[in-house]
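re: the backbone from monday

yeah here it is again, tokenized this time
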């Protein structure tokens, strides 16, 4: 199940369908993590959950929610992995039953320092045992540099980097 947890994001990508959302939807965080877990358990099914958003790590009590859901439900997470909550996630959530973390790399939003922080977050989670892939979010403005960016990431120890096909209009 693809579960779109929230709309807020710490980036403001011009190509995103959630561009410039400044306030979270009022339903986000309305139920406690325990109430959500109970609802999934009540179905009697094992769910394969793909957690995405906005930025899912901005979801209220995200770490608790993931920790409660993952024993019975395999989880994948899509994140930009560039948020202060990453370190807390690494401390509070274990990798068991987290299938993969898919990092969406929005290279246009990074300078050298922020890219270094993203790579540090990647290595922090890898050291904790999480399986991570990185999806390079393409855009026509980036086509001339994609290969060099991916080479740089490989040199920095980022193992699995895949460009995402650009969908959209461009003038």
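seq for it, each position gets an aa:
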């Amino acid at each position: 199940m693809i579960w779109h947890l929230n709309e807020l994001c710490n980036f403001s990508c011009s190509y995103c369908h959630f561009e410039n959302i400044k306030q979270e939807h009022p339903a986000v965080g309305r139920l406690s993590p325990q109430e959500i877990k109970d609802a999934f358990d009540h179905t009697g099914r094992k769910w394969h959950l793909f957690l995405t958003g906005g930025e899912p790590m901005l979801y209220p009590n995200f770490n608790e929610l993931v920790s409660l859901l993952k024993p019975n439900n395999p989880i994948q997470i899509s994140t930009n992995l560039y948020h202060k909550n990453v370190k807390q996630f690494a401390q509070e959530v274990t990798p068991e039953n987290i299938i993969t973390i898919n990092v969406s790399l929005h290279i246009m939003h990074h300078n050298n320092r922020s890219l270094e922080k993203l790579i540090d977050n990647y290595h922090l989670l890898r050291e904790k045992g999480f399986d991570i892939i990185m999806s390079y979010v393409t855009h026509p403005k980036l086509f001339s540099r994609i290969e060099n960016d991916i080479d740089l990431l490989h040199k920095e120890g980022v193992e699995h980097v895949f460009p995402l096909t650009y969908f959209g209009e461009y003038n």
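The CA atoms of residues 108 and 119 lie 15 Å apart. Helices lie at 33-42, 62-69, 85-92, 112-127, 146-155.
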